[in-house]
UniProtKB/TrEMBL annotation, chain A:
Keywords for the protein's UniProt record, in alphabetical order: Amino-acid biosynthesis, Branched-chain amino acid biosynthesis, Magnesium, Metal-binding, Thiamine pyrophosphate, Transferase
Organism placement in taxonomy: Bacteria, Pseudomonadati, Bacteroidota, Flavobacteriia, Flavobacteriales
Domain Thiamine pyrophosphate enzyme TPP-binding: from-to ranges: 410-557
Cofactor entry: thiamine diphosphate; Mg(2+)
EC annotation from Swiss-Prot or TrEMBL: 2.2.1.6
Protein name from the UniProt record: Acetolactate synthase
Automatic annotation (TrEMBL), chain B:
Subunit structure: Dimer of large and small chains.
InterPro entries, sorted: Acetalactate_synth_ssu, Acetolactate_synth/TF_NikR_C, Acetolactate_synth_ssu_C, ACT-like_dom_sf, ACT_dom, AHAS_ACT, AHAS_small-like_ACT
Family as reported in the entry's similarity comment: Belongs to the acetolactate synthase small subunit family.
Reactions listed under catalytic activity: 2 pyruvate + H(+) = (2S)-2-acetolactate + CO2
Keyword line: Amino-acid biosynthesis, Branched-chain amino acid biosynthesis, Transferase
Domain of life of the native organism: Bacteria
Biochemical pathway: Amino-acid biosynthesis; L-isoleucine biosynthesis; L-isoleucine from 2-oxobutanoate: step 1/4; Amino-acid biosynthesis; L-valine biosynthesis; L-valine from pyruvate: step 1/4
GO cellular component, one term: cytosol
Pfam families noted in UniProt: ACT_AHAS_ss, ALS_ss_C
Name of the protein: Acetolactate synthase small subunit
E.C. designation(s): 2.2.1.6
Transmembrane domains' residue ranges: none
GO molecular function, one term: acetolactate synthase activity
Length: 585, 195
């Protein structure tokens, strides 16, 4: 092929550029350094050995945490990403290593967590031959990734990795999986440096905000008598906490958070009216069906939030602000859609709205809160019975940490109680598996959270069921010594399922009486100190010991076996059918 | 009310994209009536034409989910009256019957069938048109010993798509697509040391 003069000149200048001969594996690690990666969570294996071999020479610049199971690696990366706002990195080998990531990928996709997962794959010539540890990772993970790609040629790696980081972290974040065949990891190729990607022609991470919708939204807000804001994780993901606070404070609108939106504003904020959803607070659920304007910001109207859709906020106009156009009208029909990044749309909207206070309307939330306080909260936080409640444990924790801690929860009753009662001062402090409801999430996610922000206390609140799903990660804590306070709320039951069996299945307790090992002894085996308490008099002291201990600590608190979480929006009921106790059902 | 919708998707030419699009339907247990994947007037940009029978609300949501995929440029949905659309079919009939039965010959003329292959034992005809005509001919030929019948997926042109062609050209000119990397090692199994 003949080259033009210009092309020859270009070729010559390429040579003067620094060209290194690097292996595909080295290119992966170079890309990480350029993207500012510091911590990798992973587990080696046959098909990813060349990358681990290259990593041997990068340990001065990249920290690798060897987990005990690939699911632990991906949950740790999720915890890391949720706390730090950066993209979490995972290494796993082919076959079982890769399939063990699936739960975490699904969790990260539904909870919009940015991850780049690198899986090893068999040699390209072995693809489709049922080779040892070969599995069709790309097709297995297609429904649970924002994007995935298989690399068979090392030349592709710089541009593919740049795309991976761009896609994972931009727009509505999500997990990306890059499957790299072993030959591509070993292949030496000319490496001309790394260029980050900020544009992909088929990909629109942010819809362009449209002025007419922002104006229409402002008109609705200015004329509303009883407006209600429900905000989700979009505020945190968009780093728009300040913009959001400015908006609600100018408009004077009562604001409720979803489970993932929690901590975007301090829980003590005067306009914060609590959590919506099945076990959320009484006021925001009840008054959803009384407001005249519902402003949804960075949330997706999950069924656990809306209850029965045909009876959800039917009386209200709906403004939906979201970065993902596919969320608009997905579950709840919107009157005014405001597409875009809320960091941009919120200030534009704030500029157009009138300074207001909705004192009477806000008072309704306070009245509801008082009712909930009398009927539920007081009894939960200051019980008269001898058995301990989960809520009083969280209450003591609040006092001792002053709302400064990062709280990572698992899934079930303890999660709902922790999210209902925990106090937060800072954003990105509540880490939980929201959309997927993944038991076993908390312990590894707390490990990741501890790396995501080393300056803060990380408390993993876990049930006796969930902790047994990923308990092997105590080994990771033993070896790498992240500072994680493990607080097991043990009710000797799979509590949430038991609650439903009690309420909806005539107390037919079918396989919810789970037995646990001696958690303190198990922790001791891993070199982690701990204790178990079952008396109120010992609770505060034990929590203090845990928090003051230098390094990780396990505290098991024996709580009431058959305590239920209330309030509750029973399944299939409207949010305004929320009940405060069993008697109301 | 459920009705027939045609979803048109412009995409990058990437391996695995057909799966990423197809699972959006199967996840919701929606049957794909027909799916056609092929080139467009702009080389490197591919076009899917998917036919489903669903309510407009469902189709609208699905179209958004498709467009959300990273490698998808644009997705539209249209009702039949907004489209010019065609399907193609082939019919294998015993040659003897055609030679002997005037009725069959008349049928073929009536439906404007073209001959593709004539052999001693069988003849293959082809028609292009809309679903009803194609199915009607297949049914009419059935009593006369129709040996094989196959119908293609729908291809469709959107009636009001003047701006789109220009947009696609500008799009490609602004940033040409990258070539697809296929697995060139698959047939080189022998002589490669593996672990």
């Amino acid at each position: 092929m003949e080259r033009t003069f210009e092309e020859n000149k270009q070729k010559a200048s390429d040579k003067t550029q620094l060209v290194q001969q690097l292996s595909g594996s080295q290119i992966v690690l170079e890309a990480f350094l350029h993207e500012g990666v510091k911590t990798i969570f992973g587990y080696p294996g046959g098909a990813i050995m060349p990358i681990y071999d290259a990593l041997y020479d990068y340990t001065d610049r990249l920290e690798h945490i060897l987990v005990r199971h690939e699911q632990g690696a991906i949950h740790a990366a999720q915890g890391y990403a949720r706390v730090s706002g950066k993209t979490g990195i995972v290494f796993a080998t082919s076959g079982p290593g890769a399939t063990n990531l699936v739960t975490g990928l699904a969790d990260a996709l539904i909870d919009s967590t940015p991850l780049v997962c690198i899986t090893g794959q068999v040699f390209a010539h072995l693809l489709g031959t049922d080779a040892f540890q070969e599995t069709d990772v790309i097709n297995i993970t297609t429904p649970v990734t924002k994007w995935n790609y298989q690399v068979t040629d090392a030349d592709e790696l710089p541009s593919v990795l740049a795309k991976a980081f761009h896609i994972a972290g931009s727009g509505r974040p999500g997990p990306v999986l890059i499957d790299i065949t072993k030959n591509a990891q070993l292949q030496k190729t000319d490496y001309r440096g790394y260029t980050p990607c900020n544009y992909i022609r088929s990909y629109r991470p942010k819809p362009i905000p449209r002025a007419e919708y922002i104006e229409a939204a402002a008109v609705l807000i200015n004329s509303a008598k009883k407006p209600l804001v429900v905000f989700g994780q979009g505020v945190l993901l968009g780093n728009a906490e300040k913009e959001f606070t400015a908006f609600i404070e100018k408009a004077g609108i009562p604001s409720a958070w979803t489970i993932l939106g929690m901590s975007a504003i301090p829980t003590s904020h005067p306009l914060g009216v609590g959590m919506v959803g099945m076990h959320g607070n009484y006021g925001p659920n009840l008054l959803t069906n009384e407001c005249d304007l519902l402003i949804a910001i960075g949330m997706r109207f999950d069924d656990r939030v809306t209850g029965r859709l045909d009876m959800y906020a039917k009386q209200a106009k709906i403004i939906h602000m979201d970065i993902d156009p596919a969320e608009i009208d997905k579950n709840v029909k919107t009157d005014v859609p405001v597409w875009g990044d809320c960091k941009e749309t919120l200030p534009a909207l704030t500029a157009l709205i009138n300074k207001k206070e909705h004192k009477e309307w806000l008072q309704k939330f306070k009245d509801c809160a008082e009712k909930e306080n009398l009927k539920v909260i007081q009894g939960e936080m200051f019980p008269v019975e001898e058995v301990l409640t989960m809520a009083e444990v969280i209450n003591h924790l609040n006092e001792l940490t002053n709302g400064e801690a990062i709280i990572v929860t698992d899934v079930g009753q303890h999660q709902m109680v922790a999210c209902r009662y925990a106090k937060y001062q800072h954003s990105k402090s509540n880490i939980t598996s929201g959309g997927l409801g993944t038991m076993g999430f908390a312990l590894p996610a707390a490990i990741g959270a501890a790396y995501g922000d080393t300056s803060r206390t990380v408390v993993a609140v876990i049930g006796d069921g969930g902790v047994q799903m990923t308990i092997q990660e105590l080994g990771t804590i033993m070896q790498f010594k992240p500072n994680v306070k493990i607080l097991i709320l043990n009710n000797c039951f799979l509590g949430m399922v038991r609650q439903w069996q009690q309420l909806f299945h005539e107390k037919r307790y079918s396989f919810v009486d789970i037995q646990s090992p001696d958690f303190v002894q198990v922790a001791k085996g891993y070199g982690i100190p701990g204790q178990s308490v079952n008396k109120r008099s010992n609770l505060n002291g034990a929590l203090k010991t845990m928090l003051e201990h230098e390094g990780s600590y396990l505290l098991e608190v024996m709580v009431g076996k058959e305590n239920n979480v209330f309030p509750m929006v029973p399944q299939g009921k409207s949010v305004s059918d929320i009940v405060l106790s069993r008697d109301e059902m | 009310m459920k009705q027939e919708f045609t979803i048109t998707v412009y995409t990058e030419d990437h391996i695995g994209l057909i799966n990423r699009i197809a699972i959006i339907f199967s996840r919701r247990k929606i049957n794909i009536g027909s799916i056609n994947a092929g080139p467009t007037e702009v080389e490197t940009i591919h076009r899917f034409t998917i036919v489903i029978t669903e309510t407009e609300e469902v189709v609208q949501k699905i179209t958004k989910q498709i467009e959300k995929q990273v490698d998808v440029l644009k997705a539209f949905y249209n009702t039949d009256d907004e489209l010019v659309w065609q399907e193609m079919a082939m019919y294998k009939v015993p040659t003897k019957i055609i030679a002997e039965q005037v009725k069959v010959e008349r049928l073929l003329r009536q439906y404007g069938a073209n001959t593709v292959v004539i052999r001693n034992d069988y003849t293959v005809f082809e028609t292009t048109g809309q679903r009803e005509e194609i199915n009607a001919l297949a049914q009419a030929l059935e009593p006369w010993g129709l040996i094989e019948f196959v119908r293609s997926a729908r291809i469709a042109i959107i009636k009001s798509s003047h701006g789109l062609h220009k947009a696609l050209l500008e799009f490609e000119a602004a940033e040409p697509s990258e070539p697809v990397v296929e697995n060139e090692f698959l047939d080189q199994r022998d002589g490669v040391f593996t672990l």
